[in-house]
Design goal:
GO terms for molecular function: endo-1,4-beta-xylanase activity. One of its GO terms (biological process) is xylan catabolic process. Belongs to the glycosyl hydrolase 10 (cellulase F) family. Keywords: Carbohydrate metabolism, Disulfide bond, Glycosidase, Hydrolase, Polysaccharide degradation, Signal, Xylan degradation. This protein is of the alpha/beta class and about 350 residues long. About 5% of the residues have low confidence. The longest helix has 21 residues. An 8-stranded parallel barrel has the order 1-2-3-4-5-6-8-9, surrounded by 6 helices. It has one domain: Glycosidases (TIM Barrel). α9 runs parallel beside α10 and α10 packs parallel to α11. The protein binds (3S,4R)-3-hydroxy-2-oxopiperidin-4-yl beta-D-xylopyranoside.
Length: about 350
């Protein structure tokens, strides 16, 4: 896959945070990654609570092994994620912060500085999701997350931690590409509008930011290609990069009862071909909408259907266990989706 593109084609993989899909020890996982991908994202181990479990105690061992494996195989790493409110990814000392807002913001800056500085020295960590999911899904008007974000609350009920994180990341590694990353911004909706407002504000005030990561945990039927393209175009028009950071295409949509209307209970050829078409259309929309100079790349969130996060996650997916969302089957064989992705490039 990577050979077909002039921009990074990546996959999220794990090291010591998943049962048997460890990139450092699983040779089947390695074979797929080394053959098809030029970039890796850590599924979990570069998140805050993994890297700084208690105040000032940085634990880089698993992440170092992960990044070193990539380096040994000429693979770059997209760092994920410096700041994310999601409950168990936030270190307890931050959740339980009882000091001042100014000191809390300094802790956020310190985390970003230490982590980015550490990985800059490796040489192959080329980009970062600096802040992940800071905007809520409000409709008709979306806003920054408030009470559900430790960062907002402990910063003195303020979104200032976002720009402070970007400034610290830029200062620590001026050559790293810095992204704001979120889900549901591919729908050209209130959340997209709020994000664009933030980007405009950052640009006006010279807050450093290079691009937007569109997570794109999408379905067969949703969102439409038209809305994906329209949302990406808004970022393109700001002169920023667009990166698809976490692509997967679940064949069942728990919000609409399945696809097409009925829950899929086996991955038939018909379903596989429809998924192939969907992957192709998404990649093609990216190619058509984002000019070459603004393409940050496309990453899938996992290699095989056996290691998708959708089997174990989450309340939002109603325990959906049959998503078959990725490019390879449980035995590491290509699915038609892989060809669909390639055809879109
Ligand atoms: C997921 C991981 O894949 C899971 O293993 C973990 O339990 C929860 O986080 N958006 C993101 C990713 O930005 O960090 C999430 O990763 C998936 C949704």
């Amino acid at each position: 896959l990577q050979a077909l593109a002039a921009f990074p084609i990546g996959a999220a993989v794990t090291n010591n945070d998943g049962p048997s899909f460890n990139i450092v020890t699983n040779t089947s996982e390695q074979a797929v990654v080394e053959k098809h991908f030029g970039e890796m994202t850590a599924g979990n181990i570069m998140k805050m609570s993994y890297l700084q479990p208690s105040n000032g105690n940085f634990t880089f061992t698993n992440a170092d092994t992960f990044v070193d494996y990539a380096k040994d195989n000429n693979i770059n790493v997209h760092g994920h994620a410096l700041v994310w409110h999601s409950d168990y990814q936030v270190p307890n000392f931050m959740k339980n912060w009882s000091g001042s807002a100014a000191d809390f913001i300094a802790e956020v800056e310190d985390h970003v500085t230490q982590v980015v500085t550490h990985f800059k020295a490796k040489g192959n960590v080329v980009s970062w999701d600096v802040v992940n999911e800071a905007i809520n899904d409000g409709s008709p008007v979306a806003n920054f997350r408030t009470t559900d974000s430790t960062f907002y609350v402990k910063s003195g009920n303020s979104s200032i931690y976002i720009e402070k994180a970007f400034q610290a990341a830029r200062a620590a590694d001026p050559s790293a590409i810095l992204y704001y990353n979120d889900y549901n911004i591919d729908q050209n909706n209130a959340k997209t509008t709020k994000m664009i407002e933030m980007l405009t504000d950052f640009q006006t005030r010279s807050i450093p930011i290079d691009g937007v990561g569109f997570q794109m945990h999408v379905f067969m039927d949703y969102p439409s290609i038209a809305s994906i393209s329209a949302a990406m175009k808004k970022v393109v028009d700001k002169g920023l990069k667009v990166k698809i950071t976490e692509l997967d295409v679940a064949v069942n949509n728990p919000y609409s009862g399945g696809w097409p209307g009925n829950k899929i209970t086996s991955f038939t050829n018909t379903v596989a071909l429809a998924q192939k078409k969907r992957y192709c259309e998404i990649v093609k929309a990216y190619m058509d909408t984002v000019p070459a100079a603004q393409r940050g790349g496309i990453s899938v969130w996992g290699t095989t259907d056996a290691n998708t996060w959708l089997t174990t996650a989450t309340a939002a997916y109603n325990g959906e266990a049959i998503a078959w969302p990725l490019l390879f089957d449980n035995n590491y064989n290509d699915k038609p989706a892989l060809r669909g992705f390639a055809d879109g490039l």
